Amino acid sequence: MEYKLTFKDYANALTKGKLLGLKCKGCGNITTPPKMTCQECGGTDLDIVELSKRGKIVTFTVVNVAPEGRQNEAPYIIALVKLDEGPWIMGNLIDIDPARASMDLIDKEVTIGFRVFPGDQFSPGDQARPVFSFA
Amino acid sequence: MRKVAVVGTGHTPFTFATEKTSIELFSEAAMDAMNEANLKPKDIQALYLGNCLGDFSEGQAMLQSYAANDIGAFHIPATRFEGACASSALAIRDAFIWVASGYYDVVLAGGVERAASMGTPLATRTFSMFTDSHYEYPAGLTFPAIFAMLAHLYAKRYGIALEKLKEQMALVSVQSHYYGMSNPKAQFRKEITVEDVLNGFMVSSPLQLLDCCPFSDGAAAVVLVSEEKAKQITDKPVYITGIGQASSGKLSAQKDYLPRIRAREESAREAYDMAGIGPSDIDVCELHDCFSIASLIAAESLGLFEYGKAGAAWEKGETKIGGRIPINVSGGLKAKGHPIGATGASQVTEIYHQLRGECGERQVEGAKSGLTDTLGGDGVLCTLIMQRGW
User: Fold this and answer.
1) At what angle do helices B292-301 and B262-275 cross, to 10 degrees?
2) Is the same domain home to A79 and A13?
3) Assuming Cys at both sites, which of B42, B136, B227, B238 could form a disulfide with B132, CB separation 3.0 to 4.6 Å?
């Protein structure tokens, strides 16, 4: 069985300003990032849908110790965002000085854009990733 | 299914960067485990070895085969287990199943890691391989970052002011360091204070340096045998009476269930059901305190405290020896150290000696039932329950 929406197609869409997900014909829930099956019911009858690119921050952290090869990016903020459609996605919050990040970020509304992680010796090349800006 | 006992353990010191190879470290622990069980290498029928990052730390994959040969267990089947920080717990669980099934009578299981030898940048990068490489690592995700996000989520979910939660988290590290003082195998044998924790370098907010376990080198090994064999070896066998294992999807896919890890709850329930006991029957617990907040999350999901209340339990001393349920009196991952591939076997070693009354200053008197909880990555869980067999 082939993937309805692969990483490559999801990432390519992200670089064109589209956040894609999968709507389950069985239970109606949305899954993104994409998977073989619905995250809620395991169903495989899925339609690709374009999402609103809006959500709320549910949690965050300011990273000061970065992995090898990414030390020059620190400090940076990672956030988990709950999309209006329900799924959570991970990305970087780019709209605020990391020194000013606090618990007040939680529940703030954001919109979703993208940046490209150029990869490193362990990665298979460019990887588009979501970034968040205040709505 | 047959009963399965642990009858011998070996445990190297857990240390900062060592000059010993992974095979040397594991072989030392393995020989000690066999000696403790009065068994010879020729008695070992299979080796199950947990190791995560040998490929990166010293360019050594397939070390299970070379380790079997090194210890003189020639030509036995040897299998590597990789489940991030839970690798050797998974190895022990599988060893249990194969002995319980009757296929083997004697299996050596354990693990080894040289995480400290990699240095912080490479160790941070390779530990990040235990996250989703395509959908989450590109954000720069690290292990402290995962638990840092869970800490903020925990504060929000349970309505605990972050400052208060951080004090409770600091007490987890303080307790672990206190008990690490009486563990000769521990990497840190130094007391710390709440102020030390709260004044530490901020690794990934809100986690400071002493909220985080160290990178460590070390190995641990245990011998598992059938009941019949155990009775020939010792009059104090420790039986594994409950096992559980479960898996999770990437962190974002766990969404609204967070900061709880559902796989831990599934794994724990499986182990409790199999053993026919509950959380209140556990006398001593070694749980996966890779970060201070991780201890609170784990203790709650194991059913030891109510959700949102574990921090208060540490504050009241309920997790100390003499308290309701002594937790991580080995010093835990925080003070004892966390050579990731070896951690599950190290936890089992501690419970084994606790149940046999061999832990000296840090002995939990009269402990009859113990539990280990080992977490790999953001959601491989293994729970093992052990009970006195005499």
Assistant:
1) 50
2) no
3) B136
Averages of pLDDT over each 10 residues, chain B, 390 residues: 98 98 98 98 98 97 98 98 98 98 98 97 97 97 98 98 98 98 98 98 98 98 98 97 98 98 98 98 98 98 98 98 98 98 98 98 98 97 98
Asked which of A10, A31, A51 is the last residue of a domain, the reply is A51
Give pLDDT tens digits for A82-105. 999 999 999 999 989 999 999 999
- What is the CATH number for B267? 3.40.47.10
* Pairwise CB contact (< 8 Å): A59 & B249: no
ipTM, interface predicted TM-score of the complex: 0.98
Whether residue A64 sits in one domain with residue A122: yes
- The single-letter code of the amino acid at B77 is P
Considering the domain architecture, whether residues A111 and A133 belong to the same structural domain is answered as yes
The β-bridge partners of B111 are B50, B220
Q: From chain A, which residues contact B within 8 Å (Cβ)?
A: 7, 33, 35, 39, 58-71, 73-74, 76, 78-80, 82, 87-92, 101, 103, 106, 117, 120, 122-123, 127-130
Task: Return residues 198-227 of B near A (CB < 8 Å).
Answer: 201-207
Are A43 and A74 in a shared domain? no
User: A14 contacts in B (CB within 8 Å)?
Assistant: none
